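Write out the 3D structure for:
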Amino acid sequence: MNKLNVLLVAVVMIFATGFANAQKIASVDINAIFTSMPEMKALDTQLQALQTSKQGELEKQGKSLQDLMAKYQKEAATQTPAINEQRSQEVQKLQDNLQQLYAAAQKDIAEKRDAGLAPIEKKINDAISKVSKAAGYEWTFDASSPALLYKAGADATPAVKKELGL
């Protein structure tokens, strides 16, 4: 019975090794493709402009708030406690509004980035699929992924760049 088990394990190992060697595997450096795409460069420019615009608005509002706070602190000694309390609440409300504007700006930038990345990612994935099918690759891994521990197979990055016209 032991000899039969050993023989069975040996046969399975031989077949498994044969099947593993028959697979065609390639890697693609998706980060390199992203950075070389004109669409990505245009998206980065748009996002930078949006961020600069939002930052300008926030700085303007922040400066206005700081000026108001300085004015209220300067006048605090000459005002009644009720007015000072009212002004304090007003300043707190303005600070809360500024924080909400900051959060909204971050959300707008993230949404714009996600909306801009979706067609770029689809274009890259379609090109990878087309190249992989044409070359007969059964598996194509992202070479820039930390999950890839060893790379000795074919590199499909140049073919994908060529498919994208880069």
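Residues 1-13 have pLDDT under 50 and may be disordered.
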